[in-house]
Specification:
Blueprint (H helix, E strand, L loop, with lengths): L2 H9 L8 H24 L6 H21 L6 H14 L6 H21 L2 H17 L6 H15 L5 H5 L4
Helix pairs in contact: 1-3, 1-7, 2-3, 2-5, 3-6, 3-7, 5-6
């Protein structure tokens, strides 16, 4: 699924109270959750929990998509994807947990900067960071995470957001 389709499909899973601040807090929270399996693999020499990595990446993409939709200017997603696809071909991504850890920190910084000034270039940097992180963690076709995320959300909600799911959810 391409970015434009993902933005449309993920929007169906948004509740009524998803402000920019909510999306940024959610993105930073998910980034922190993503760091847990990275930390365990790097510092505790545990096997990398790839299932958890994929789930947290999907959740980070959901919040990123919300922020992209939140920007009230037109973003040509096709041109943006072509730009990143070309950049990926030119740029050798280091597939390592150390580089992924640094990418997570950069994403958190971009999210916090975006909350402060709301500038589109910060959001584009955030999007680029998400793509790089996805590749670093083993998803060279980051778009497969869009499909996985929508599949997970449809299993929870059906075609549209369901507050009932969250009202009955035990964390």
């Amino acid at each position: 699924m391409d970015l434009k389709t993902y933005l449309i499909e993920s929007e169906k899973t948004i509740g009524e109270n998803n402000s920019t601040a909510y999306l940024i807090l959610g993105l930073v929270n998910e980034a922190g959750e993503l760091l847990t399996p990275i930390k365990r693999a790097l510092h505790h020499k545990q096997e990398l929990d790839t299932k958890n990595i994929k789930e947290e990446l999907c959740d980070m993409w959901w919040h990123t998509a919300g922020l992209i939709r939140d920007v009230e200017i037109f973003i040509d997603t096709e041109k943006l994807e072509k730009f990143f696809d070309n950049a990926i071909k030119e740029f050798e991504v280091i597939n390592s947990l150390e580089s992924a850890k640094v990418s997570v920190f950069r994403i958190i910084r971009c999210a916090l900067d975006f909350e402060q000034d709301g500038e589109i270039d910060v959001l584009i940097a955030l999007l680029g960071g998400m793509i790089a992180l996805s590749i670093e963690l083993g998803y060279p076709d980051y778009r497969q995470l869009f499909d996985a995320n929508i599949e997970k959300l449809r299993a929870r909600h059906g075609e549209k957001y369901s507050q009932e799911f969250y009202d009955n959810r035990v964390n």
